[in-house]
Amino acid sequence: MSTIERSIEVRVPTSTAYDQWTQFEEFPRFMEGVERVEQIDDTTLRWRSRAAGRSEEWTARIDEQIPGKRIAWHSVEGRSNGGVVTFHRLADDRTRVMLQLAYEPEGAVEKAGDWLGLVGRRVEGDLRRFKEFVESRGEATGAWRGRVPAKDERPARG
């Protein structure tokens, strides 16, 4: 499993950065190679991407979502990946967005790309495009402020 950690400072309030990130279906507007993200329900996302001429689909589940602070997920079908994005207030109009991503490169080409740092550069580009997108708008295209408690915070089923 490979891990990437990157962050970027955006010139918008923390609530704006977080609200925009919750608009998963907008991801193709700033994430390279992402063709579509469909939100099935509050915690399930269906992704389709294209890289190196190959199309892939996978389903991810949100494990924890704390409004304005944190979103954590992992794949449940298809491409193996998971991660967390956190939002840190720096000032009234500045936020640090921190992304940690874990993924499993498949095949020789992906392993070579991973070794060369291609995925890390793609993530950096995605964060730069997110910054440009949210700063140019000045407001989010929508918001979802619902909470998804971490597994250890959920009530036991009896």
Can you describe what's shown?
This protein is of the alpha+beta class. It has a domain at 2-22 and 62-141: START domain (Alpha-D-Glucose-1,6-Bisphosphate, Chain A, domain 4). It is 23% helix and 43% strand. The chain contains 3 helices and 7 strands. It has a 7-stranded antiparallel β-sheet, with helices on one face. It is globular and about 45 Å long.
Brief descriptors of the model:
single chain; 158 residues; Alpha-D-Glucose-1,6-Bisphosphate, Chain A, domain 4; 7-stranded antiparallel sheet; globular; 3 helices; alpha+beta; 7 strands
Short overview:
This protein is α+β, with helices and mostly antiparallel strands and 158 residues long.
Structural class: alpha+beta
Cα distance spanning the termini = 35 Å
Order the strands across the largest sheet as they lie in space. Answer: 1-7-6-5-4-3-2
- Helical fraction equals 10-25%
What is the helix/strand order?
EHEEEEEEHH
Average of per-residue pLDDT values? 90
What top-tier CATH class of the domain at 2-22 and 62-141 fits best?
Alpha Beta
Superfamily (CATH H level) name of the domain at 2-22 and 62-141: START domain
Helix-strand blueprint:
Layout: E1 2-10, H1 14-21, E2 34-41, E3 44-51, E4 54-66, E5 70-78, E6 81-91, E7 94-103, H2 107-115, H3 118-137
Antiparallel strand pairs: 1-7, 2-3, 3-4, 4-5, 5-6, 6-7
